[in-house]
């Protein structure tokens, strides 16, 4: 999987020529979607990723936080420690820390580590041209010929589905890249409003396309305000789409509410019908916390969930601790609309 002399530039073949129909698993690219077996640790939980056949760690390493360290070697050590302790799902994004997160992950995945993980990254581009440009950069930074999962990043505006599915849109590029063997699975992410996620699913159904994965906020406050857990998870489950949970701590804002402890928050996320809880790990202490959460995990009972949600209800009102829903503080594409293309 090491990056060799770079694959020829992104194909300009459209969806019709590439697949014959707009499907997430074209027959010609079936070999790229064959499930891969990876080492597993007794200290980690492993789950099926939707209907992909892939088995991945229930804790995912958040890519943003491994690009913040002053010393690149510290980031590399942390990524490798996480893998050595059983985390096989790697999250990243083309725009995290201006590409530094992908560069450091690519460096960490050398020396045999690439084969031990399921590698995911995200593209901001909404046009075929911009998606292809970003994908080529990500492949180079991550030092790999194939990325296991690429997701459309920050689907947070009502018009984002229109742009992705439009003629010449990013979906054409993603399906062509899958056919070319550059990516294996296709998904999307967003954190603003469940209505946008539902619209993305509606567009997919209209175009006879099924997403392999969907990433969304799943946390102890989500149930009370613009709830992805209540509105989006049932749709994803019905379609067989693997669910990736994020914003467990809301970038620590949820923890600042003093209504929940970190292990409780992780246990809540793991109790939901999700494949992976992606969490930011920026130190060995936080990694220890994540591993402790899996070692002590027992699904919460309905009574325990109700008690936890009652405890967070008042703090969760108006989304005041879920700033990713109510402000543009977390919206990289809002600050840099040029990335969309």
UniProtKB/TrEMBL annotation:
PROSITE patterns, alphabetized: TAT
Record has Signal as a keyword: yes
Signal peptide: 1-29
NADP-dependent oxidoreductase domain residues: 59-251
Keywords, alphabetical: Signal
Stored InterPro entries: AKR2_Oxidoreductase, NAD(P)_OxRdtase_dom_sf, NADP_OxRdtase_dom, TAT_signal, TAT_signal_bac_arc
UniProt cross-references to SUPFAM superfamilies, sorted A to Z: NAD(P)-linked oxidoreductase
UniProt key word Acyltransferase: no
Highest taxon, organism lineage: Bacteria
Pfam families referenced in this protein's UniProt entry, alphabetically: Aldo_ket_red
PANTHER family according to UniProt: D-THREO-ALDOSE 1-DEHYDROGENASE, NADP-DEPENDENT OXIDOREDUCTASE DOMAIN-CONTAINING PROTEIN
NCBIfam families for this protein: TAT_signal_seq
Name of the protein in its database record: Oxidoreductase
Organism: Edaphobacter dinghuensis
């Amino acid at each position: 999987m090491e990056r060799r002399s770079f694959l020829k530039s992104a194909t300009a073949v459209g969806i019709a020529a590439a697949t014959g129909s707009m499907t997430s698993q074209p027959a010609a690219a079936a070999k790229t979607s064959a499930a891969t077996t990876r080492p597993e640790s007794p200290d980690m939980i492993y789950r099926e990723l939707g209907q992909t056949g892939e088995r991945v760690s229930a804790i995912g390493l958040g890519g943003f936080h491994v690009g913040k360290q002053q010393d690149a070697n510290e980031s590399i050590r942390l990524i490798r420690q996480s893998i050595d302790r059983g985390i096989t799902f790697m999250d990243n994004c083309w725009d995290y820390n201006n590409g530094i997160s992908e560069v450091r992950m690519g460096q960490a995945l050398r020396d045999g580590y690439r084969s031990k993980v399921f590698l995911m990254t995200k593209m901001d581009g909404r046009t075929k041209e911009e998606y292809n440009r970003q994908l080529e950069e990500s492949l180079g930074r991550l030092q790999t010929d194939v990325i296991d999962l690429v997701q459309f990043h920050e689907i947070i505006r009502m018009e984002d589905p229109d742009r992705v599915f439009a003629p010449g849109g990013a979906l054409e590029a993603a399906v062509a890249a899958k056919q070319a063997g550059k990516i294996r699975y296709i998904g999307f992410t967003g954190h603003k409003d469940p209505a946008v996620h539902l619209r993305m699913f509606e567009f997919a159904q209209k175009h006879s396309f099924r997403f392999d994965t969907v990433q969304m906020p799943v946390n102890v406050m989500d149930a009370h305000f613009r709830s992805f857990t209540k509105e989006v998870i049932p749709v994803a489950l019905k379609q067989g789409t693997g669910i990736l949970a994020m914003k467990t701590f809301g970038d620590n804002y949820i923890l600042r509410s003093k209504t929940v402890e970190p292990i409780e928050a992780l246990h809540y996320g793991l109790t939901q019908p999700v494949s992976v809880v992606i969490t930011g790990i920026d130190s060995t202490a936080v990694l220890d916390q994540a591993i402790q959460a899996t070692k002590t995990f027992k699904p919460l009972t309905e009574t325990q969930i109700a008690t936890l949600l009652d405890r967070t209800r008042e703090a969760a009102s108006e989304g005041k601790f879920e700033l990713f829903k109510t402000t543009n503080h977390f919206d990289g594409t809002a600050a840099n609309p040029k990335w969309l293309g």
